[in-house]
Write a structure and sequence with these properties.
The chain is an alpha+beta fold and 88 residues long. The chain has a domain of 45 residues. A 3-stranded antiparallel β-sheet has the order 3-4-5, with no helix packed on it. A two-stranded antiparallel ribbon has the order 1-2. The longest helix is centred in the N-terminal third of the chain and has 17 residues.
Length: 88
Amino acid sequence: MSRIRSLFVSAAIALLLAAPPGIAGENCTCRGNGEDVEEGRVVCLRTASGEKLARCERVLNNTSWKILQEDCPVAASPASRGALGISS
C-alpha cells in the first residue's frame, strides 16, 4: 500500500512540475462603469460610497481596482465659481 501511495505522489509531483505556469495575457482589462479599462489606466469609478479615482492593476495574475486617495476631479463653471466666492 505504501508503494502505491509513493508512486501516486511521485506521479502527481511530476505532473505539477511538467505543467506550464498559468500566465495572464498581455491585454488584461478591468471592467468598470460598463466598459473595459486597460491595465494601468486611472478612471473615476462609481462605488457604493460615491465616485472614487481608481487604477486598474494586476494582483496575483488577476486584474483588480486599486482605489486611490484622491477624489474624482470636479470642474466648476464660471457662474458657480462666483457663487462660491472663488475669484479667478
